[in-house]
Amino acid sequence: MSDEMDYEDLPEDEPSSDFEPVPEKEEPPKFEEMSGMEVSDDDKLWALLAYVLSPLVPVIILLMEDKKQRPFIRAHNAQALAWGLVNVVVGTILSTFLCGIPSLLLWLIGCYWGWQAYQGQMVTIPVITDFVKNQGWA
Fold this sequence. Notes:
Helix 2 runs parallel beside helix 5 and helix 2 runs antiparallel to helix 6. The longest helix is centred in the middle third of the chain and has 28 residues. The N and C termini lie far apart (77 Å). This protein is 60% helix and 0% strand. It is built from 7 helices and no strands. The mean pLDDT is 84. The protein is mainly α and 138 residues long.
């Protein structure tokens, strides 16, 4: 008997059809890809701050002429301002009954959206994004 195995004689294992490959998670589109405009690190930082420290920073951005004209900052700032106002109203009402937990959760959601903006991605906030775009604010 030889030391080498003949692999041609072995039965072929057929892949099991029970398992399907997990599709890769699609990232939201990047602003640069959608608009063709370059986004600076400064733009990304201001967008992050707008979500994390909303509604204060979005109001400050509205007062800064050079920042409010940047398309990336403008798109995120309008959403962050609307989100901040909703956060204050809903968070205050719910927090009176639930010991501040809703406000913390809403702030954490804003932090997540800020991180997405810092990555250069467009953030889609249910209801708010459509409202802001329909008003022509972004």
